Amino acid sequence: MSNKLTTVQDGKPSAQPIQTQGLRKQYNGFVALEGLDLQVPEGACFGFLGPNGAGKSTTIKAITNLIRPNKGKASLFGVDVQREPTLALRRVGAVIETPEFYGYLSPLETLAYAGRLRGMNRRDIEAKSEEVLRMVKLSDWANRRIEKFSKGMKQRVAIAQALLHDPALLILDEPTSGLDPRGMAEVREIITSLKHSGRTIFMSSHLLGEVQEVCDYVALLNHGRLLLQGSVRELSQQTDVSSLVVSFAGSIQENEVEWVKTVPNVEGVEKSANATLGLRVRGGVDTHAKVLEALIQHGLRVASFRPLGSSLEQLYLEHIKEAEQL
Predict the structure, then answer these.
(1) Does one domain contain both 166 and 306?
(2) Do 184 and 246 reside in the same domain of the chain?
(3) Among 68, 180, 185, 203, whose Cα sits 20 to 30 Å from the Cα of 83?
(4) CA 40 to CA 219: how far, in whole Å?
(5) CA-wise closest residue to 96 among 197, 170, 207
(6) pLDDT tens digits, residue range 291-317?
(7) Would you give the DSSP letter of residue 98?
(8) Domain span at 135
(9) In the 8-state DSSP scheme, what is residue 100?
(10) pLDDT tens across 76-100, in order?
């Protein structure tokens, strides 16, 4: 399967919400981005995934014209960000890094201020403020001072502010970073609800489970290089090697561990405790069933047999490992 979602015709970017070509950014000898080619299809909820320091925030700052790349180009809806930043960003709403607000203002006052900066008229500001606060579930807090808000509530205010002018593209940089579990769940729920609004959502994260839960497409970045990109469903089907954790009722002996290594389709065995083995198995659920059957027929008392993470997680870890070895 090709990882490219679209093509570039005649050397010109299509009118995709986000497209980068050969994007490179270097800071005093440190290469943060190296030749990034990224395509985000219209209407997608796109997860930009990678470990901390992979270059995700640098990419977002480049495509929103907060920094200038050393090489390459970024386009939003076919408009070059560097050449025509005002036009390129007109249809974009963004939450980048930790949002900060005037604590003495309420969400309604904050949105009114942001709306005026965007040139919106009073009637539109009032109508849209009510709508977006309802979308982020802050209607009951519309007139409260933001200084009383939790970090998760402030993040919801930031999303409301980004949505105020009804953007076609919403960019979120690590939207759940630093939040407690409740705040993370609330923000993920909002993003999931926004998926059905028809707009394109581009969110960075270092949490694979988060991306897999809310996104339709994903791109994996590491050390400034794009490792893969495609739909979550297609990428999940790319790997046929799974990690399994098997626990036994009682300790397992070394000779039994050696026998497990000979079971068909078992490519690796690691003893993590006296009664637990980690297996790497090639094949899908039918193969998993055959491995389990073989263990039981051999007389091993299996207490639990479960996959360690999803197939997408396996692909993620495999590509990160390969990249680190280069």
Answers:
(1) no
(2) no
(3) 203
(4) 9
(5) 170
(6) 999 999 999 999 999 877 666 777 777
(7) S
(8) 18-236
(9) -
(10) 999 999 999 999 999 999 999 878 8
For residue 292, report the phi and psi dihedrals to the nearest 5 degrees.
Answer: -60, -45
Give CA 154 to chain center in angstroms: 21
Is residue 143 situated within a structural domain? yes
Query: Do 230 and 139 sit in the same domain of this protein?
Result: yes
Q: Residues of the chain with pLDDT > 90: what percent? A: 67
DSSP conformation letters of 251-301: ---HHHHHHHTTSTTEEEEEEEETTEEEEEEES-HHHHHHHHHHHHHTT--
Alpha carbon distances (Å) from 30 to 14, 294, 326? 31, 51, 17
What SS3 class is residue 185?
helix
Q: How far is CA 306 from CA 238, 241, 245, 322, in A?
A: 20, 14, 5, 25
Separation of alpha carbons 169 and 90, rounded Å? 10
Same domain, 204 and 290: no
The H-or-E segment that residue 38 falls in is: strand 30-40
Tens digits of residue pLDDT in 110-134 = 999 999 999 999 999 999 999 999 9
Structure tokens, 196: 């059905």
Q: Residue 237: is its pLDDT beyond 70? A: no
**Within a domain: residue 142?**
yes
Per the CB < 8 A criterion, the answer to whether 190 and 179 are in contact is no
13 is a domain residue: no
In a shared domain, residues 285 and 225: no
Judge whether 100 lies within some domain. yes
Question: What are the start-end ranges of the H helices in 120-266?
Answer: 122-135, 151-163, 181-194, 208-214, 232-236, 254-260
Rounded Cα distance, 215 and 48, in Å: 10
- Looking at the fold, whether 283 and 299 belong to one and the same domain comes out as yes
Q: Please give the helix or strand (H or E) that residue 111 lies within, else none.
A: helix 107-117
